[in-house]
């Protein structure tokens, strides 16, 4: 009898383990398509933009061919990158998947606007401090085939009335002890942000690429109609009916983990990302390709 009970418990544990292993393999190796519809009187025409974030050198097939194919199939008006396609680690030295992805998108004639993540910022600093040339090499190669980096810069999509701002946060704001709440975060006022990227344009739809969603109240106060972020990887392990468990910087139960949020003036959409780094897992948190469908008021987005 005892042996029978032990065998049943072992069987249940084994099946549970296999189930979670299957979920993890699925969530890391495959990506889902998640669509958001945005309407505003400031928009001049229907526009489709894709949002990529937090690839962390991951490759969906050789040369990222599955991801490139999915992006080309969408035939978007542009691709926006909310940072961390690369990983700033001594071990993560293979940027080929990032370059293949960018090249594959550009070969289809799709404009690419690249906003910086904390990993690109760190690698950019390592150029000086460690003579680590990975970011410079990738940037130069990507710019060669037409990728536009937005390092506290803006670009205007005249047809659609969308003005894209790419914010590069002061790097000290990413300090892990701040992110985990161990050291109190200093307020980051919207006027400081305006010194970096200027002020929003009253006649345009102001789209802000800001890798870290933690400062959404600041972005909202600054005047972003829509903020696009990443950084949180969806909370890595998603607890059903609750949300993300932990951020990549080990912040427990992050307030902003992924999805859509409304502020006082504008909205925030956070990509759950495409890859992993410190904690190389995802549970009930599949990698995602975000599709943004913009339309003026009264026009069907579908
Ligand atoms: Fe990040």
Describe this entry's structure for a reader.
The protein has 302 residues and is α/β, with parallel strands linked by helices. The chain has a single domain, classed as 4-Layer Sandwich (Purple Acid Phosphatase, chain A, domain 2). The protein has 8 helices and 14 strands. The protein has a 6-stranded mixed beta sheet. A 6-stranded mixed beta sheet has the order 6-7-8-9-13-12, with helices on one face. Strands 10-11 form a two-stranded antiparallel sheet. Strand 2, helix 2 and strand 3 form a beta-alpha-beta unit. It is globular. The mean pLDDT is 92. Fe (ii) ion binds next to helix 4.
Throw out a few tags for this protein:
Purple Acid Phosphatase, chain A, domain 2; binds fe (ii) ion; 6-stranded mixed β-sheet; 302 residues
Low-confidence stretches: none
Rg computed from alpha carbons, rounded to a whole number of angstroms: 20 Å
Sheet of most strands? 6 strands, mixed
Which class do the helix and strand fractions yield?
A: alpha/beta
Total count of helical runs of at least 4 residues? 8
Number of strands: 14
**CATH superfamily label:** Metallo-dependent phosphatases
Number of domains: 1
Q: Identify every distinct bound molecule in the structure, by name, code or SMILES.
A: fe (ii) ion
* Overall pLDDT score: 92
> How do the SSEs run, as a string of H and E?
HEEHEHEHHEEEHHEHEEEEEE
Q: For the terminal residues, how far apart are their CA atoms?
A: 60 Å
With strands numbered from the N-terminus, the spatial order across the biggest sheet is 1-14-2-3-4-5
Q: How much beta, percentage-wise? A: 15-25%
Fraction of residues in helices? Answer: 25-40%
The level 1 CATH classification is Alpha Beta
Rough shape? globular
Q: Can you tell me the CATH topology?
A: Purple Acid Phosphatase, chain A, domain 2
């Amino acid at each position: 009898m005892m042996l029978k009970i032990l065998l049943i418990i072992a069987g249940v544990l084994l099946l549970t383990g296999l189930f979670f292993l299957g979920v993890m393999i699925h969530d890391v190796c495959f990506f889902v398509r998640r669509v958001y519809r945005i309407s505003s009187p400031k928009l001049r025409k229907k526009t489709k933009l894709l949002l990529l974030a937090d690839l962390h050198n991951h490759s969906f097939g050789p040369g990222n061919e599955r991801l490139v194919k999915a992006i080309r199939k969408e035939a978007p008006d542009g691709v926006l990158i909310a940072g961390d396609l690369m990983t700033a680690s001594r071990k993560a030295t293979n940027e080929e998947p990032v370059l293949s992805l960018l090249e594959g998108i550009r070969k289809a004639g799709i404009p690419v606007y690249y906003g910086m993540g904390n990993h690109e910022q760190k690698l950019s600093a390592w150029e000086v401090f460690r003579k680590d040339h990975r970011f410079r090499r990738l940037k130069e190669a990507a710019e060669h085939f037409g990728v536009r980096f937005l390092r506290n810069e803006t670009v205007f999509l005249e047809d659609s009335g969308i003005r894209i701002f790419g914010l590069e946060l002061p790097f000290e704001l990413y300090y892990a002890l701040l992110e985990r709440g161990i050291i109190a975060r200093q307020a980051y006022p919207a006027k400081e942000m305006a010194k970096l990227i200027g002020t929003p344009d009253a006649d345009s739809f102001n789209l802000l690429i800001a890798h870290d969603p933690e400062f959404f109240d600041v972005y909202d106060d600054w005047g972003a109609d829509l903020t696009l972020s990443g950084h949180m990887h969806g909370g890595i392990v998603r607890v059903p009916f609750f949300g993300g468990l932990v951020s990549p910087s080990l912040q427990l139960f992050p307030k902003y983990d992924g999805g859509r949020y409304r502020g006082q003036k504008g909205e925030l959409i956070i990509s759950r990302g495409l890859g992993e780094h410190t904690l190389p897992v995802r549970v009930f948190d599949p990698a995602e390709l975000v599709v943004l469908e913009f339309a003026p008021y009264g026009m069907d987005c579908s």
